[in-house]
What we know:
- The complex is a heterodimer.
- Chain A is mostly helical.
- Chain A has seven helices and no strands.
- In chain B, helix 1 crosses helix 7, helix 2 crosses helix 3 and helix 2 (22-36) crosses helix 6.
- Chain B is globular and about 40 Å long.
- At the A-B interface, helix 2, helix 3, helix 6 and helix 7 of A face helix 2, helix 6 and helix 7 of B.
Amino acid sequence: xxxxxxxxxxxxxxxxxxxxxxxxxxxxxxxxxxxxxxxxxxxxxxxxxxxxxxxxxxxxxxxxxxxxxxxxxxxxxxxxxxxxxxxxxxxxxxxxxxxxxxxxxxxxxxxxxxxxxxxxxxxxxxxxxxxxxxxxxxxxxxxxxxx
Amino acid sequence: xxxxxxxxxxxxxxxxxxxxxxxxxxxxxxxxxxxxxxxxxxxxxxxxxxxxxxxxxxxxxxxxxxxxxxxxxxxxxxxxxxxxxxxxxxxxxxxxxxxxxxxxxxxxxxxxxxxxxxxxxxxxxxxxxxxxxxxxxxxxxx
Lengths: 147, 142
């Protein structure tokens, strides 16, 4: 089980309190689909994904991005039990959605880039390190029920 | 994953935006990598790994200069990076997984400094560019 130090938890929750979940969720999912176009394979029903601007402006992408990042909020509140928190979502992503867990790692790193863009200098190497641990742990938790 | 003419233009545009800061960005990317992915430190036991150390800054400048060379030879990365490729294959032997950690750290550095100028399209092209450089640098491993 991953252990977050008190300092890491403070870093994570402090930054999280300033995140605009709707905006940054949409941005993160959008960038995932732009930077790693093969991830579009899961979103055939999303309509126009034909260009970077189409993707970033797509209302379904924004809505889904918000949903995904809202879920990250649950992680922030439950850093001591990510596996428990995401058990059900893990089963869903394996059994119903058939998503390769590598995609969770890709999205995690995209989120880190988006946070860096948004927070600039405040997103120091130390802050980034706490968030790398966070996103990697969420990815692991989401993969934990795969079979 | 080949660099399109658009990718090449994007890479050059980002490099222009970074301007004279590229050397410092190299150092910052290493700081970020050592903190975010501690296993990468195993290749630098001879360094002072305190964040921002002279060793790290010097290495960061080396990395940045090599990347700038690559940016100026986007049509022939294998040719331009041949010596570095030999070095990584025969002397340094850095496990290929680590190139992704440095590439990601470079993207985060650029993103944090360029903000909204680091558009999704630029992000995509830079990711491809770093991926191509990594492939070239590991191309002679076996």
